[in-house]
Amino acid sequence: MSRLDVFINRMVSQRACLNYAAEQTGDMDGPVFELGLGNGRTFDHMREIMSGRPIYVFERKVESNPASTPEPEMTILGDVRETLPAALERFGATASLIHADLGGHNLEKNDRFAREISPLIEPMLAVGGLMVSSDRMYFDTLTELPTPPGAVEGRCFVYRKD
Ligand code: SAM
After folding, report:
1. What is the pTM of this model?
2. Which protein residue has the closest C-alpha to ligand 1 atom 8?
């Protein structure tokens, strides 16, 4: 499979998983968290499919397309290893949807990082909330759901807090 194929599969899967998670959590009140703004493409998609829901963006350095840059009051700046514990104190276990796309090209490094931040993300979800990730996560209590239609197995992961 070419790198172009891998990239396309990741994009198609992100969209399918985000659409599924947004629909499944549509009647929940809690905030939505976007971990990793990057260019802002997934943030832009999330605000389009979840208009009216508060979306907080976690990023260490904002360098997004100006058209996809969150408002300063919705931006939580810093390393997620520090900002996630602070956000847990601020919001409690209230998140309706958390999307994480924090990885780069090094798959081993991505996996190590996913192991490190899984315990920081796990307590933030409200009951019924969903977590969508581009990397496999390592949760003790969340249930991994089947890949939704339109997503490619292994390119996107969805977890639920029961
Ligand atoms: N989903 C984005 C999009 O559609 O444009 C792409 C996100 S990009 C792959 C990953 C982002 O995560 C980068 O902007 C990087 O700065 C951020 N990031 C990586 N590790 C981080 C950390 N420890 N704390 C905060 N942000 C981090």
Report:
1. 0.98
2. 38
